[in-house]
Amino acid sequence: MQSPATPVLDIAGLTHGYGPTPVLNDLAIRLDRGVHHLLLGPSGSGKTTLVHAISGLLAPDKGQIMVDGEAMTGRSQTARDALRRNKIGLIFQSLRLVSALTVRQNLHLAGRLSGHPTTNDAIDGLLAQLGIAHRAAAKPRRLSQGEAQRAAIARALIGRPSLLIADEPTSALDDDNAARVASLLIEAADRNGSTLLIATHDQRLRTLIPHTITLGAQGGTIQ
Ligand SMILES: Nc1ncnc2c1ncn2[C@@H]1O[C@H](COP(=O)(O)OP(=O)(O)OP(=O)(O)O)[C@@H](O)[C@H]1O
What range defines the domain where residue 206 resides? Predict the structure, then answer.
């Protein structure tokens, strides 16, 4: 990890589009360590495009993205993949656990891929934090939706990423469960030294995470 003063995410002049009008236009964002943010914006405003650019899954047309002091932009796909595995934990809506592996094996694999191979004890400790230690030997299809979501959060955290990004983790949930999942994400991020960015339409999360980045306005609005 870099010094505490190094921003977890530092974006300058980010522009990207798929046609004549850019989706992201000269965007600037700075996330300080430990300050969790929501990434808000209506459908089509560019949240997924921004998450993909931050994660190095796409190379933007213009601009610079620094993740925990290291450049995600201006590098090869291979270098971007390595930086993502080392610095970023991603939780997608479709969870993407490997179905042939148990929960514990999924976490071992994620640890190896992130360059932080880990022990059964460390994995079981993380699963216990998330309340699913008793499901370590289960295959994903045997998990409830809530357990599978907790396993996906554990998998994203196994490499102790500087930045933890969750895509729409609560939109399909009722109020109680949305608050529960958001609180779980915040607590898990805090305990593992990760800064959380939640891409969402879900305005209910503002009460738990007051800092927001809103896309849709020219260049985005940071609060
Ligand atoms: N690969 C692509 N090719 C062409 N256009 C794209 C591509 N990906 C996204 N777009 C367009 O870019 C715009 C932003 O899309 P994006 O998925 O980033 O928005 P979003 O805010 O994540 O939307 P949602 O909340 O509906 O998931 C949309 O108009 C979309 O149609």
Answer: 9-222
3-state SS track over 79-123: HHHHHHHHHEEEECCCCCCCCCCCHHHHHHHHHHHCCCCCCHHHH
ipTM over cut 0.95: yes
Token couple for 2: 């870099």
- Mutation probe of ligand 1 site: the residue of 38, 40, 45 with most atoms within 8 A of C-beta: 45
pTM of the predicted model as reported, rounded to 2 decimal places: 0.90
Q: Single out the residue of 101, 102, 151, 148 nearest to residue 126, CA to CA.
A: 151
Residue nearest to atom 10 of ligand 1 (CA): 18
The CATH number linked to 138 is 3.40.50.300
Q: Which atom of ligand 1 is nearest to the CA of 46?
A: 18
85 and 113 in contact (C-beta within 8 Å)? yes
Do the domain assignments include residue 1? Answer: no
Q: How many domains does the chain have?
A: 1
Interval 128-137 mean pLDDT: 93
